[in-house]
Amino acid sequence: MNIGEVAKSSSVSTKMIRHYESIGLIRTSPRTLSGYRQYHDRDVHLLRFIRRARDLGFSLEQIRQLVSLWDDPERASADVKRLAQSHIADLDQRIAALTDMRDTLVTLATSCQGDHRPDCPILHGLAAAS
């Protein structure tokens, strides 16, 4: 398969496939005599794996670890679970921070009259020291 076919089959852009190759997340594909990259079904499967991990918010380093674990038939599922639980904890922290931001903005927006006057509690709230 060429890179365009792999991109379509995996839902990963050709630009990202090249990027993943350049950072060593996926192996560099062999090339034909005319210089075109050649891919196989396993490459498509790996790219789908990476795409799904990205969709779940894993970082590239975490994905590198997941790929390494996926490739290791001697892996312990505890290692995979530990990585997933660490990511869940990070997501929980980010959700809490976003919830706090949202609550603050809701409070500021609610206190603003939104009329023609220049007084704006939103701007005052943003200017206030935290």
Content of β-strand: under 5%
Order of helices and strands: HHHHHH
Count of discrete structural domains: 2
**Uncertain stretches of 5 or more adjacent residues:** none
Note the gap between the termini.
56 Å
What is CATH's topology name of the largest domain?
Multidrug-efflux Transporter Regulator, Chain: A, Domain 2
Instruction: Describe the global form.
Output: elongated
Largest sheet: none
Number of helices: 6
Strand-pairing-aware structural class: mainly alpha
Q: How many strands appear in the DSSP assignment?
A: 0
Summarize model confidence as the mean pLDDT. 94
Radius of gyration: 23 Å
Helicity range: 55-70%
Based on the structure given, which CATH architecture of the largest domain is correct?
Answer: Orthogonal Bundle
CATH domain class of the largest domain? Mainly Alpha
